[in-house]
Specification:
By secondary structure, the protein is of the alpha/beta class. Helices cover 26% and strands 22% of the residues. Strands 3-2-1-4-5 form a five-stranded parallel beta sheet, covered by helices on one side.
Length: 125
Amino acid sequence: MQPSVFYYILRYIRIPKSHTFLYRRFNEKDDFKILDVGCGRNGGRTLKSFFPKCQYYAIDKDSEIDLNDVCGKYFHMDLEELDFNNIPGNFFDVIIMNHVIEHLRNGDQVMEKLLSKLRKRGIIY
């Protein structure tokens, strides 16, 4: 017996397992803010497709990234310089850092600076 059409549809629109916790916690909220650190060229579009109600902000050191269609603000910066003054403090519900910290020589200092950007009870993921 072959799987139904719904099986194939659900397979492609399903939230990745790595994001299910965030989905359960924030999917119904209209105004939650995500900061994607090391977003890459298409990370924002993918994340925004899973959380269409979120306000999406991004950081990357690649100056060629164009996320204007999904991004509230794009911060072009090198994290190792530790200049986070342009990023609002006590503002984000979620900070996502996928495969970033292991590339930084001062990752502990970067994390310390980013913690001040989280709202109370915010999540670094």
